[in-house]
Here is the input.
Amino acid sequence: MDDAVNDKVLLSLDVNGSEHEVLVEPRRTLADVLRHDLELTGTHIACEHGVCGACTVLVDGAPVRSCLMFAAQAEGRGVRTVESLGRGDELSDLQRAFTEHHALQCGFCTPGFLMLAEGFLAARPDASRAEIREAVSSNLCRCTGYQTIVDAIEDCAARRRAAERTRSA
Amino acid sequence: MREPGFTADGTWVGASVKRKEDPRLLTGRARFVDDIHLPRMLHAQFVRSSVAAGEITSVDLSRVRDVPGVVAAFTAADLDLGDITAVLDRPRSEFVPTAMPVLARDRVRFVGEPIAIVLAEDAYAVEDGLEAAEVTYRAGTPVLSEEQALAPGAPLVHDEAADNVLLDVSMFATEGIDDIFADAPCVVSVRATTGRQNALPLETRGVVASWDARAGQLLVQTCTQVPHVVRTVLAGCLGRPENTVRVVVPDMGGGFGIKCVVGREEIAVAAASLRVGRPVKWIEDRKDALTASFLAREQRYQARAAFDEAGRILALDADVLCDMGAYSCYPFSAGIEPLMASAEMPGVYRVPAYRVRGRAITTNKAPTAPYRGVSRPQYVMVMERLFERAARELGLGPVEIRRRNLITTFPYTGVNGITYDPGSYLESLNLAERVLTEEGWYERQRELAGQGRFLGIGYSCFNERTGYGSDAFAKRRMAVVPGFDISEIRMDTSGTVVATTGTMSHGQSHETTMAQIVADRLGLDLDHVFIQQGDTDRVAYGWGTFASRSITIGGSAVGLAAGRLGDKLLHIGAHLLRTRPDNVELSGGRVRKCDDHTRSLSYVDIAEVAYLKAHLLPKDVDPGLTATASFDGIGDGTFSNASHGVVVELHAGTGQVEILRYACVEDCGVAINPQVVEGQARGGIAQGIAGALFEQVTYDEQGEPSAASFIDYKVPTACEIPDISIHHLETPSAFTGNGAKGVGEGGTIGAPAAVLNAVNDALRPTGVELDDTPITPERVLGALEVRWTTR
Ligand code: FES
Ligand code: FES
Here is the structure.
C-alpha cells in the first residue's frame, strides 16, 4: 500500500455546532468519521456509492451524501446530522410529523430523509406535494412505499407556513 | 363483518397509537449492528469466489497477512466448522439434502461464495487485505438456467443431486382430472416467469461476535429475524452446548425474509472471533448484499385450467419450477418455494380438481431465501392470469368471472386439503371494483382509448395463510419444525410490565402493537408496558419473525402470558381484599371488588406485597409477579385476504408503465393498530410493484451477476411508487388471541398480479398478452409494436 495513504491528517470539523479534532487517513469519508470517530451513529450507510441517501447530512445547510465526501472536504464548513434535530427528548416539528404520519418502519432510512427534508424545506418552504415527492425520490426507503414520508414533509411544511403567517400577522 | 371501530370501546387494540420505537429512530439513538463498537474489535470481510463453478486449486493468504492492519485470515481448513444442512423428512426421490459449508472448501458454486475470512484493525485495512488474496480455480461450466440444469448430462451443482433437482413433488392429482380437461368447453393455459429479485433490506446483513468471559458465553449480536434458530445452528457448527451461545439482535433495518435464514457469514465471524480472542464485526457491503447474499423469486409456471360455459373453474393443472440457486437455505430448505406454491395455489377460488408438480432446481447463482410472500406473488399472478384469459375466451368480464369462482361459504376445505377460515373474498373484490368505478376510471379509459392512449384496469384477489403452527409446518415435513412462540411477562414494584417474545420486529412495530395487546389485557397505560425481543437469554425458545406469524402467534402468546399475570394479580388481590376469588376484577390498573368498586388495590400495592412483603401473600402463591405462556398455530392457521385494483397507463413512446391509481381492500381480521396495518400494506405493495415492473438480477454466460450496485439494480423511488388508498374490512380470526390475522406479506402478494392484469387490459387493442415479470419497457414496446405492424 502507498505510504502516503497511511499518513494521517489532523482535521478540525464543525459538527452540530461543536468543534471536533480527528486524526484520520485522508481517504476516510465524512460518513465514517461521523459514525465511527465522533460516534454520531444516527447517520447511516446503505450503499456507499451515492444512491440510497441513508447517509444524507447537511453541509452548510445543503443536503450532502456523506459517503461520497472525504472528511477533509468538510473542514471549514458546518456539518449537521440527525442528532442536531429536536432538543433533548423533545422532537422537532419534522420528527413529530414523521411519527404522526407513520413515515418510518424500520427507521434505517429515516435520518437520511429527515436531513434531506430539513435542507429541502429550508430552501423551498412553499414546495408543492409534487415537488416534495420529487425531492424525496433522491433517497431510498424499502419499507414505507414513500407515501407517508411525503405526507409528513408536506404536513410539516404547511405547519411551518401557518406558524410563519401567525408570526408576521 | 363491520368496518373496524378503532377506539370506540376504549381499548388500545384498534387504536392507531404512535409507535414506541419512533423516538429513538428519529433522533439517531437507535442501535443498529454497525453502531456497536467494542474494545479491541476487529473488522472482517470475505474473500469471495470470482467464478461461478469450479474447483479451488489454491488459496494463498500469505500476502494478505502482510498487509498493514491485517491481523488474521482463515480458510475453511483453518476454522474446521460443521456444515449447515437443511433437511426435509421426505424420500430421496422427493428431496435431496445438500450441505452448505460455512466457507467453501474445495468447490465453489456461485460468484461471491465466501472462501476465506480476513480480519483487520479497521474497515479500510480489511479491504486492502482482500485485494492481496490469491485464489486459483479450475473453472467448470456454470449451470445458469432451467434448460441447462435439466439437460441430460448437465454438469452437476451438487454431486448428490442428479439432474440438479433438489425437490420434486407431485401432489393431489384428483381422480379423473385428465378427463375433465378433455371434456371441458374451455381450457386456457399460461406460461409465466418471474425475475430473480433481492429482498433488499436497506440495512445490509451484519454481525458483531465477542466472548463474554463472565457469562462463559459467545455473544453474537446479529441482525437476524430468527435469533434462536441462529443460536441452534451456531452451537451445532461450533460444536458447543447451546447455553454457551447467546444471540442478541440490535435494532434492525428491515429483513423481508432474507434475514430469516442462517447466513454462513454469521457462523464464520463467530468462529473467527473465538479463534483470535477478540471481538469481530462484519458489515456486508452493498455489492455483496446484491450479489452474494440470498436472492429470491425466480420461478417458471406452466399452468392450465378448465372451465365450463358459465366460467366456473373445473380443474387446475400446474407445473412449478423454482430456481433456488446454489444452496438450500436453513431451516426451510430449497423446498420452500415449490412446496408453498404447490400446497396453496388454488387460493381464494373453489377449484374442484387439482394436480401440481413442484420442483426446486439448483444452479450456479447466489442461493435464495424466502422473500415476503414466498411464491404467493407468483402463483396468485398465474391464477389471476388464468381467470382473465378464460374471461376473454368466454366473453365474461374479468371481475364477473372471479365472482363466480370465489369461495363464499366458510369454513371451506379445498381440494388441496386446506381448511380456510372466514374471510371477505367477494366483499373485498366488490369494494375494489366499486372504488374504481365510482371514481370514473372506466369512463376515463373509454375516453382516452378514443385518443389512442392505453389505459388499463386490473385486479387481483388473494388470501394468505398466516400463523402457521407446528402442525402446519410438520405437514411440509421440515426436520426442525417451527410453529409455537413463548412469552414471559414480569411486573415489578412500579406496576409496569415487561413482556418478552421470541419474534423479532424489523420494522413491523411489535414493540407497539404487542404492548397494545398487553395493555388491554391488564388495563394498563401503554407507557407502562415494554416488549423485549431479540435476546435468546430472555426467552427459552422462539421461532422469530417470518410468514406473518408475529402478531398471530407471538402476539397471542404475549396476550396469554398477560392474562396469566392478571390471574395472579386477581388471586393476590382477592386475598388482600379479604373476598372470594370470583368477586374481583381488573380495572384501570387496579384489582377491585366486583360488588363494591370502592374497595380496590393498585398494582403497585399488590407488587409491593409480592416482592417486599411476601409474608402477606396467600400460602399457595409464590413470591414475584411473573407468568409464562406459549401459543401455537391452530389447525391450518388463519387466512388474511385482500383485493387490489390498479389503473395504469402505458406510454407508447417509452414503453413505460405509469400507475395512475392503486386501491387496496384488505382484511386482516382485527387490526391491532390500523395505521401500522396500512403501513405494512403500502410497503408491501411497493415491493410488489418493484417486482412487477423494475427489479431483476440477471447473469452473464459466465455466471457473473449483472447488478453489483444500485446503479444496475433499479429500486423504485417515490417517483415510481404511487399513493395507495387502503380500505379495511374486518373478519376476525377465531384462531388467534385478538382476532388478528397476519398482515406483513399481503401487499407484496397482490401487486404483481394486479399490475400485470392492468397492463394486459391496456394492451387489449393489440391482442398481445404479457405473462412475465418484470414488465420491462422493452416488453411493453414489443407488445405495442404488434399493434403498429398488424393494423
Ligand atoms: S450510503 Fe451514501 S448514498 Fe447510500
Ligand atoms: S423505514 Fe425501513 S427503509 Fe425506510
Summary: Chain B has three domains: 33-140+204-252+259-291, 374-467+636-783, 484-631. The longest helix of chain B spans residues 550-576. DSSP finds 21 helices and 30 strands in chain B.
